[in-house]
Amino acid sequence: MIDLRNIETFFWVATLGGFRAAAEKLNATQPAISQRIASLESDLGIRLFDRDVRGIKLTGKGQELLSHAERMLQLRRDMQEAARAKSVMSGTLRLGVSETIVHTWLPTLMEYLHDTYPALMVEIQVDTTTVLKTQLASRQIDLAFLLGPMEEPRIENLYLCNYPLSWVASPKLKVGRQPISLKRLGEWPVITYSSTTDPHRAVRQLLQQAGVDAPRMYGSSALSVIVRMALDGIGTAVIAPVILRKELTQGELRILDVKAPALPPLHYTACWMQGPDSQVPRTVAEAAQHIAREEALRHPAKP
Question: Which domain range does residue 238 map to?
Fold first, then answer.
């Protein structure tokens, strides 16, 4: 009889690309991983991996059997989920989050998870979408809330929310009569998201199309930096007003009336890898979608 543990080991060695990574994933030693693969190959009467000095790769038969292994593990996961209530969902979820979500509804989600799934531990990492995509693809995180969707095989996407972008400035910055032209805005630095992001590229393109040949743009992956520089009157900022409720209410910043096409909104998506261990990420993503919708109803985002 084939040991399901050996099938699980085969799946993770193939998916993660090596014995060491699979050993870390399964909390086992490398010799134990090697022994399980050898045992499975003996039971099946075939070689699953070719080994050389460069590492390992699946044989043709191994590649063919990988999808069968994944289905068997998914069936086990489905059976486990059917046998227990949601309230006992446990383990550790590695969650990657874009910073805008941290400043909107992430605390509400964490409170919900704490109350509903007390046995579930969540490790949170805040980073840019570019970094989160890389970490998700390499399975360094299990679930990501990022600017999406991700157009990659084996990635599941679930829409979360949209946040419009606006031009904002401190009253310290004497922008003059409004509506104001992009050409006029080009006289000051523009503070916005980092240069690797779609919003940064969209702002630069708008300014260049308006005749600002070499726009001065200060990009940052930290929202606190963008807000601080805008408050200090260093330049105008392009940012989602949803995170500026206090500054706008107190008059420290104001939304500018700009004669320009609307900027594309921030489109946030929950992303996770398909696979036999995807039930927890999917459940948390669905909870996040519900909470994001409730947040949008309570506080409609306005450009």
Answer: 166-259
Cα 236 to Cα 243: distance, rounded to the nearest angstrom:
16
Q: What is the pTM of this model?
A: 0.71
Query: Do residues 143 and 291 both lie within one domain?
Result: yes
Torsion sign across C-alpha atoms 61, 54, 272, 40: positive
Identify the CATH number of the domain in which residue 270 sits: 3.40.190.10
- What φ, ψ does residue 142 adopt, rounded to 5°? -100, -25
Q: Say how far apart CA 287 and CA 112 lie, in whole Å.
A: 8
* Residues 276 and 249 both lie in one domain: no
Question: What is the side-by-side order of every strand in the sheet holding 155-163?
Answer: 120-126, 91-97, 143-147, 266-273, 155-163
Cα radius of gyration (the chain): 24
Last residue of one domain, picked from the residues 59, 83, 107: 83
* CB of 302 closer than 8 Å to CB of 164: yes
Number of domains in the chain: 3
Amino acid 115 reads D
pLDDT of 72-109, one tens digit each?
Answer: 888 777 766 665 555 567 789 999 999 999 999 999 99
Is the preceding peptide bond at 281 cis, omega within 30 degrees of 0?
no
* Residue 286 backbone dihedrals phi, psi, to 5 degrees: -65, -35
